[in-house]
Design a protein that fits this description.
There is one protein chain. By secondary structure, this protein is of the alpha/beta class. It has six helices and five strands. It has one domain: Sugar-phosphate isomerase, RpiB/LacA/LacB (Ribose 5-phosphate Isomerase B, Chain: A), CATH 3.40.1400. Strand 1, helix 1 and strand 2 form a beta-alpha-beta unit. It is globular, with a radius of gyration of 15 Å.
């Protein structure tokens, strides 16, 4: 699987652990940085290029990490086609993909331990979108909003 990783200083250490973990599992990794620990860096500088490449389908999935996971989630979801979520539990890691076609997992480097993060990442990567009619319908409403629609279908 082609996976993109991005992190600011708050997620730098966990990103490096995840990169090595995923490479050992046979995945192709594109690392969007940070490439050095710099407490003055800004998460959008790393997560937006990842999100754009993911939206262009040049990657299969994305993983973004900041201190809490909130900032990278907010930034990534500004890119049309990205469905990013801060995930802290196993159920949401796979259910987000199965029901909501989640394509970017967001983690908090200061709140999620590396072993827990590995379990969440495995659940996220092994899950597949079910494409059930109700899920497709709901995602269609989300896509309409992304495309500038202001009203939801009844």
């Amino acid at each position: 699987m082609k996976i993109g990783l991005a992190a600011d200083h708050g997620g730098y250490e966990l990103k490096n652990v995840m990169r090595d973990f995923l490479i050992a599992r046979g995945h192709h990794i594109t690392d969007f940085g940070a490439y050095a620990l710099n407490n003055q860096d800004d998460y959008p500088d790393f997560v937006i290029p990842l999100a754009k490449m993911l939206a262009e389908k040049q990657l299969d999935r994305g993983i973004a990490i900041c201190g809490s996971g909130v900032g990278v989630s907010v930034a990534a979801n500004k890119v049309p086609g990205i469905r990013a979520a801060l995930i802290n539990d196993h159920f949401s890691a796979h259910q987000g993909v199965e029901d909501d076609d989640l394509n970017m997992l967001c983690l908090g480097g200061r709140v999620t331990g590396s072993e827990a993060a590995k379990e969440l990442v495995i659940a996220f990567l092994e899950a597949r979108f079910t494409a059930e009619e109700r899920h497709v319908r709901r995602l269609g409403k989300v896509k309409a909003l992304e495309m500038g629609g202001s009203e939801l279908a009844e």
